[in-house]
Structure formats: C-alpha cells, structure tokens
C-alpha cells in the first residue's frame, strides 16, 4: 500500500510540473446504490503530503478513511462537496446527477481558489466546465488528488446514509449505505421503498410494482389498522386515560396514539391480529416491536417531547386488537410498559 500511495503522489508531482501547481482531483461516491444521494468531491492538495497514505477510498477501512478525511480537509488548499439527491437522479438519471455533483464541488473550490491549472477526474470528463480536464481511468489509484476526493466523497456520503438510517431504521442503511445487498433487497421487499429510494432503479421499480399489485390487500390492512386503533383508544379512554393526539406524525414516522395516564405520557403502539390466543398475542406483540421499531418509537417520543416538555415520565404501551375471523368482534389486550 505504501508503494502505491507513493506512486500516486509522484503522478501528481509530474502533473504539477506539466500543468502548474494547482491540480484539482474530482471523484464521486454513490452512483450504484438504490437509495440516497450521489456525492462528489473536488480537492486541491499541497505538494507536501508525500508521507500520507492517501489512496482509493474503497481500499481503506472505515476508520482509515475517517482519519484521512480529517487530514485532507485540514491540509487541502481547497475542497468542495456536491450532494445531488434521489429526486434529481430519478428525473435526469444518475450520470447527469453525477456530473452536477462534480460541477457543484468544483464551483465550491473555485470560490476559494480562482486559479485551477488542471482538473483531473476519475473515469469521466465533466460537461460544461471551463477548466482544462484530464480523464483518468482508475484515477483514484493513479492520482493522490483524485484519491483524496474519493475519500472525502465516500466519508461524506456514508455520514449522510448513517443519518438516514436513524430516520428509516427498517432498511439498515448504516450497514450497506443503500447498495443492493441481500439485506437491503429483503427490506425493500418487506417494507417497500422509503422516501429516499431511487424509483427509476430496477429493484426499486420492482418493489413499487409488487406494492401496486397488492394495493387491494393493503387497503384492507389499512382499514383493519384504523379500526384497531379506534378500538384501542376507546378501551384506554374507558380506563381513564386522556387522548392527547392520534396518529401524530413527524419526519421520523408516526405514533398511533399519544395519551396521558395520570402524570405519565403514554406512547401507544397498536397491533392488529386475526384470531385470538392470549399467549400467542403477547409473544407476537413483543416480537413485532423489535429493537429497530423500539428505537424509532423512542426517537418519535423525543421529538414530541421537544414540543411538549411538561412530562417527566414516559411509558410505551402496546395494545393488541385481535379480530375474530368475521372481523366484527375483537379481543383487546393491553400491555403496559411493553418495552
């Protein structure tokens, strides 16, 4: 690895002697994933980083990338980042989104470095750019400047996807960063596309089509869910609870009901089932509220408490509404402090 890093540094030194001292390396991250943005970075390095192991971001471990990211942004003469979201990708295609991300990153560099002697791009020539350009195949292997851009782009995008994983915890974005891994495809099949999925990408298209074909069943499930929520809330009102809000929504998701039991704020999650067995319902209720779902509900509760800060105690209850086969009669089980 050390020899490869040295060769990349020496390549840039030769380019500086040919074109001038201010080389701008550009690379992208995120063209292939099924979700999230494409990110590009542009970096102008000094010629003094011959001791740093700056190389293709894909060849580095996450901790190494993070460490080098700090070195690059602190010691670069200039750097910029372009982030183009999934809506632009769906409208114009991912290649055009990549070009726009690169142009955005380059414009940021140009605001602080009016002189750019050469733009070196990994595997592409950027349209509508006024600077002299050089397209380098496997540029993140050949050039230290492009390798630095690949690290900045990769770290920036990974951080974005890790933040999205907190908003959409069902998909595991923090592990696969939106790429089409078996885990991601399984989540896509189970939950359908999230708001940040790229709807023009084939696996996401297929998930949308499957969802459309089962829309009638989905409508029935929604109606059953609404009925179960109303029955659950009525049951808790009869017990003396006070309803504060039903179907409270935020950017993180939705809470079925927020209620008050004495001085305690109660976050109510309603689950509907067909067929009744007390032991089975307790088990399935607990299993259906898995760790990710619990984390999501806690985050929603925190978001609500930021708006209403008058509660010192918060509790999470699960109400299981079990409909008989005719869906006209229901058995209600209330699990206090379910998790």
Describe this protein with a few key phrases.
single chain, 339 residues, alpha/beta, Nucleotidyltransferase, domain 5, Trna Endonuclease, Chain: A, domain 1, 3 domains, five-stranded mixed sheet, 12 helices, 22% strand, elongated, RNA binding, cytoplasm, hydrolase, manganese ion binding, RNase_HII/HIII
Describe this structure in words.
The chain is of the alpha/beta class and 339 residues long. The chain folds into 3 domains: 2-163, Ribonuclease H-like superfamily/Ribonuclease H (Nucleotidyltransferase, domain 5, 2-Layer Sandwich); 169-215, no CATH class; 217-335, 3-Layer(aba) Sandwich (Trna Endonuclease, Chain: A, domain 1). The chain has 12 helices and 10 strands. The protein has helices at 2-19, 62-75, 86-92, 94-112, 139-142, 144-167, 173-176, 182-191, 202-213, 215-238, 278-288, 291-307; strands at 23-29, 38-44, 78-84, 118-122, 133-136, 242-250, 253-261, 264-274, 313-323, 330-335. The strands form 2 sheets. The chain has a 5-stranded mixed beta sheet with strand order 3-2-1-4-5. Helix 2 packs across helix 6 (144-167) and helix 3 (86-92) crosses helix 4. The relative contact order is 0.11. Mean pLDDT is 87; it is low at 276-282.
Q: What is Rg?
A: 26 Å
User: What general outline do the C-alpha atoms trace?
Assistant: elongated
Number of strands: 10
- Going by CATH, what is the homologous superfamily of the largest domain? Ribonuclease H-like superfamily/Ribonuclease H
Q: Helicity level, as a percent range?
A: 40-55%
Q: Enumerate how many helices there are, as a single number.
A: 12
Estimate the mean pLDDT confidence.
87
CATH architecture of the largest domain: 2-Layer Sandwich
Order of helices and strands: HEEHEHHEEHHHHHHEEEHHEE
